[in-house]
Amino acid sequence: MADKAEFDLIKEYFTPENWRKDVVLGVGDDCALLAPPTGQQLALTVDTLVAGIHFPVETSPADIAYKSIAVGLSDLAAMGAEPAWLTLALTLPDINSDWLQSFSKSFAKTSKDYDLQLIGGDTTQGPLAITVQAMGLLEPGLSMQRGNAKPGDLIYVTGSLGDAALGLKLLLSNTSVDQEILDLCLSKLNRPVPRINFARAAAKHCSCAIDISDGLAADLGHILDASQCSAEIYLDKLPVSRQLEKYYTNPDHGKLEVDWKLVLAGGDDYELCMTLPEEQSAALVSLAESMALSLTRIGRVGSTNGLQILDENRQPFILDKSGYEHFDNNG
Ligand code: ADP
Ligand code: MG
Asked: Does pTM top 0.85 for this prediction?
């Protein structure tokens, strides 16, 4: 449904030129029409970001637009899909042209950067919420699924963990820290980089992946549930950034005292967790090297059930998620 003001709004801000050959009809009719390449599978995902729940209300419109696309791209990456199209359902409290200008500019740039064309959506009035459906293409047989982990597989994660959760913690607590720590953590929180190119190439070697949106422990847990396996991971192998290490280095005696709960259970990392047999792991490692992407082996899949986290003395580390302050994840 749209009245005149909403039609004008859609026309002004959300009607990109048709630049993908497989879009027969884009924004403007009752439905978009697509001509997907014969023989490819479609990968579809949808996520809603609600102001004050999935992002702090002060977040800039440009960052909200970027992140609403990035979370969908991260899901496409986790399957190994190639990004293709987007729809956008936007619920706005009012028509604020400055806000819409920055939001739509960032939305258009981000979608173009990742070859995603906006092909439709819906516009409604209400508390600010952004729903993005991202659609992609996959070669049959080359998808990375949560249920494909096997006992003996090695477990890898891309990038570093915990920076976004630390960024949110710093924002909410207004703590003053070194600028370089704040810059990195806020950029991981507001501008997560979906691992699209790596994932598409990785799907040739690896059949099991998930994107880490709810924290490694929960998301690796989804792989283990779907695959009916167990896993052992090691705290001292978890990749953390130099900035996070700096934040958690005790100034009195220089000892590293990382908050492992934040690294394991903090949300919004949008890195990938992947499992694959040892024989295939060299190919994955060299692929990551060739793309200058950090890829870290953090543990191994087993044949029982549950996730076992071991500390540096190889003693069980019990993850207590209670009392944790963070915004809800973005799914
Ligand atoms: P309908 O009533 O048929 O659902 P709408 O009036 O809601 O149609 O929308 C008109 C056209 O504009 C449709 O093509 C729809 O996909 C598109 N559209 C509406 N809102 C958005 C938006 N926020 N971004 C992109 N396209 C939109
Ligand atoms: Mg509609």
From this structure: yes
